[in-house]
Each structure stands twice: as C-alpha cells, then as structure tokens.
Amino acid sequence: MVEPRGSYAGDVAPRDAWESLETDPAAALVDVRTSAEWSFVGVPDLSPAGKRVLLQEWQRFPSMQIDPGFAEAVAETLKSAGATEDTPVYFLCRSGARSQAAAAALAALGWTRAYNVVGGFEGPLDGERRRGSVAGWKADGLPWVQS
Questions:
Q1: In three state form, how does the secondary structure of the chain look?
Q2: What is the value of pTM for the model shown?
Q3: Can you name the residues that pair with 11 across neighbouring β-strands?
C-alpha cells in the first residue's frame, strides 16, 4: 500500500485490493465507471471471493456530470449490507482518477478505510494506444466478466 494522499486512506495495487477482498469478509469493491463501461468493457468478478461488486457511477452516463449524491448512495448501500465506517472499501475506475475522487468523497463522510485502486480496471494506454495490458485489474489477471 502507498501512503495516504488527501482525505482518503491511500492507493493500493489491484492485487492488494483483491487479496483483501478474498480474505476480509467485510471488504467491498465499488466500481465507479459508467454503465456503458460496465457493459462494453466488463466488470470485476468477485464471485471467487463470494462477493459482488457494487456498481455506482461517479459520473452519470451520458452527460458525465458528477453524481452529487454518489457518496451518500454508496454509504447507504454499504451500510445496508452490514458495512461500517471502518470497513475497507476499494474504489475502481478505468485508470484510477475517478476512483480517487470517489474514495475521497466517501472519506469525507467519515469512512476511514476508503482506498483507490491504482491503475483501475484497464490501466494506462500501451504503446499501441490500447488499455488492459500495462497495469490495472485486467492486466494483473484478476477475475472479470463481460456481458
């Protein structure tokens, strides 16, 4: 884990997030990408850990406006599933920028273990201007599915 920056708990590598999701029954993953990204690119598959990813858009598709109720909606969903403000919550987007903002938003509500997954789901562009092979959830070979 990387030291915390700003108001969220810090940045973690995808494999570290996966390990926590597998070993900590309370740990949760929130995918903050858009509905279009979930449909066309895929989503993390947490079924091997006996869990489901929480899908909550940080920016609403297609307008791409930040959802002003994002943090409250995530907190309510997590609490209804038994989470507390000390539960580790990992945020994932395409490459790690939106998820950092989302983690900070939840932390601002008092959640002490809101983490950003570095590299996101697809990571940065490779030499051929494609994502998914350099870094991130997919490049690390972690479970995912596409509809």
A1: CCCCCCCCCEEECHHHHHHHHHHCCCCEEEECCCHHHHHHHCEECCHHHCCCCEECCCEECCCCEECCCHHHHHHHHHHHCCCCCCCCEEEECCCCHHHHHHHHHHHCCCCCCEEEECCCCCCCCCCCCCCCCCCCCCCCCCCEECC
A2: 0.93
A3: 116
What is the mean pLDDT, run by run of 10 residues, along the chain of 147 residues?
Answer: 63 98 98 96 97 97 94 98 97 94 96 96 90 90 93
d(CA 128, CA 72) in angstroms, rounded, equals: 39
Find, among 29, 58, 56, the residue nearest to 44 by Cα: 29
> Exposed, middle or buried, 26 (CB in 10 Å: 0-12/13-18/19+)?
middle
Q: Supply 138's token pair.
A: 């997919």
